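User: Predict structure, ligand BES.
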Amino acid sequence: MNVSLNSNPVINNTSDCLVVPLSSGTLTGALADIDKASKGHINALLKSNDLSNRSGRCTSLFHVPGIKAKRVIVIGTGKNKSLNINQLGALYRHALKEAEKTGAKEVSFYLHEFDAGFRTKKHFHIATQALLNASYQFEKQKSKKAKASNIHKLFFCLTAGGAKAKKEAQAGINSAKALVKGMNVCKDLANFSGNVCTPEYLAEEAKKMAGAKVNVKVIDEKSFARMGMGAFLSVAKGSAQSAKLITISYQGGKKDEKPHVLIGKGVTFDSGGISLKPGAAMDEMKFDMCGAASVMGTMTAIIAAKLPLNVIGIIAATENMPSSTASKPGDIVTSMAGLTIEVLNTDAEGRLVLCDALTYAEQFKPASVIDIATLTGACVVALGSHASALYSNNDKLAEKIQAAGLASWDRVWPMPLWPEYNEQLKSRFADLANIGGPKAGSITAACFLSNFTKKYHWAHLDIAGTAWNGPGPSKGATGRPVPLLVEYLSSLAK
Ligand code: BES
Ligand code: MN
Ligand code: ZN
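Assistant: Predicted complex:
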């Protein structure tokens, strides 16, 4: 689907479908122009109650006299002009869905016209993001592909506001295109089955990102013991697939500028290991690499957007499998930081993998570190699928991430890292246990990680509830938290 900008007035527009807003009973803007050209056709429809201004309600009109376009979709925007990002995106999605019911190939949007305040970069960013996301499909592992949509061109028609408005609109379209490119990378990697998307596959995909200003380094499991990454290794050694520690360095900023580091949990399949998970919905544990996928997606987006910032993406990729070489409950391992860990439950593997990646990140002297992980089922219980859990050892960092979450509608909610919770991780035999008991599971997992992040400003995102949609026809990766991370990094680059 191609999205672009033009300044075609509604009367002469030759694309085969127009989308125009209706916010109240009195006609304004594009719809008023159509009414005039059609000698009162629209007003007549209004009088007979055939048009609704209810938010998202679409009415398709065909062969309206006096205009060139074959179809007009009138979409209600509601009377309330203070739509949030999600509601605004939904309007565009509804209109596109309605257009898809027709034979339209090209759709022209006049939706921004219902409020002069909408001729902003933000508006066109949200609209483009919503429209492009709506056309995402994952059929890479199907032999028969569904029939593609007829619609292949989308236009925003900007007839007012002059050169300034055009510039803003184009900037919004461009930033959304870069973002969606990254979200699609994230979704594709996450949606691929676990036998295809292995640690090796992630490493190969990462290597393809290398280029101008982008370096990619892959460390194989063979080197983990020598590097002292005993915690990561204890998970990796149970699988026949070789684990990988992948580093993607993007130098968009000045050479001496400290990098911002993103670390993704890349468990390409989490069976639980010897502490085997129950069978129901275990297939969804192919999504246990969504943190890694979001790092790859975010790196893709910021590289496409040429963000003037130094960013390092680190991916800790492994399977978690039961086998004769797998860790057993009660095993004690030594992390790269030197802390010993009693592995009381091999299904709490994410924190074992991440703690060594967090220590590995110290060498980059980071300005900030954010780890992203589908870390706990308890997080899904706490926050459901609307917000990712946010933990941080630095209030300013947490505030910036929260603000980015609101601005991108990829929201987070802050959770405590109080020392009292750390008490739950005491071990009889080692420095730390890898589980903290049944209470506050998302928090104790974050507390575990906080023992390895003392040397820098750090935040942890538990995305277990937000990274994918569960069972049913909409099962699949959401692309979150790529919008949040891209917004956060963009806010730093400003
Ligand atoms: N990857 C899972 C967390 C998860 C489970 C995310 C279900 C989304 C849906 C993680 O590795 C895990 O298994 N965590 C355990 C921790 C427990 C053993 C302390 C959990 O949440 O049950
Ligand atoms: Mn697990
Ligand atoms: Zn896991």
